Here is the input.
Amino acid sequence: MLRAPRPASARRIPSRTTRAAVATATATLVATALVACSDGQVSVKSLASPGWSSFGGNAGNTNFAYPEVPKDLALSWTRPTGGPITSPLTISNQSNVSVTANTANGCNWMVLDQRAGRMNFCKRMRPGIEVQSPLIDQFDQPYVGEETMFLGWTAGGAIRWRMPVIGVPTSAKFVAPSVVLVATTQGQVLLLNTSDATFAAPEVRLRADADPDNAMAGFGDCVTSGPRCGIPAPAAVDVNTSRMYLNFWPQGAIASQVRALDYGVVDGKREVREAWHADIPGGVIGPATVSADGKTVYAFSRIGKLVALQAQTGQTKWTYDYGDPGFATLTATPDGHIIPTGPLCGPVTMLADRGDRAEKVWSRTDLKTASLGALTNSGTAWTVVRTEDDGLALIEVSAADGKTLRTLPLPEAKGFTTGVAVSPKGQVAVATNIGKVYFFDSKEQIGH
Here is the structure.
């Protein structure tokens, strides 16, 4: 169902910053620059911040990091959030940490400074914020929502604009310069211009039962990817082909599916339209992941299989029987190596995508995983494991053979962590589900 609400439904908060024009003249050149952004920035198109700017680390959900992690990495600071953390944290271009939590009172979203974990700002948001990883642009401006509403913010924590939505937003993604994707638990898909929340494409409602008057309808099914939750997980996006991939449960269907939606420009106008959908045996659980080359989409089935689909057609390339899907997420390198995140305390296993099959490269059955991991451009993987005393430790292993390279304790940590994030400077941050952030930096920087 396609609808095109009036852009006026976005409620923008006007900036107090006055536009200023600065002219510099020479014998051959006159240049004029306009300061036009509500955050005082020069008017350029917003992009995903370098580093760990969104759920999954990037638009494709590959949890892959290009920066090199310092050899002298050490714990710099910790910060309690006051409540359980259920979504991975994100890190901006300035290495500020953005984390949401399910707190009984006080702030449930906070942005922490890299130097000591002090709050740059914190907010009390409505229900739904706890299931989101804030999206950050290159100006440190966050995009995050709550039940019935999605918001654009300044780097200092002031609201730039609000956009009403149906349901609860999942973690947002950039799909093009200055265009952000908002998909909701009730199957609504919006593409918004990041400057003012006007529509970059007509709205799409994938389910007829979307209820604007009941934002939390079906929300309880989202944790288990149940039938009343239309879109339970963040989309994977391939910006090069203008295509997004959703874990979507059609209304009245017996199982969820991977649905590919194109969002490119047609006849001069951007529009969202279905490219294909793939029914996965047992249904889909967790988010989809699209490979760096845009040729393969990975998803976990409810019955414990890792499924690889052709991104162009949705046809199955191979399936790998992984067992319990557990966290139902993965990390993938550009050359096709994959570490699935299975059940809590399961082994760390490396697979290789051989095109027509998945092949096990190595498996560390002696390690008990307690987190989604991150693969790096340096040929290593970072994850969190359970220690012998039932604590947690951050470890780095070789991507080639799984050999442990270093182990860094997480003092007083219990339970599991929601993921491993790597900043543009190679700093590493993790958050435990019981509500504590751990930030690691080079010893040289910690001493300054």
Residues 2-446 form a domain with the Methylamine Dehydrogenase; Chain H fold (CATH 2.130.10.10). The chain has one domain: 2-446.
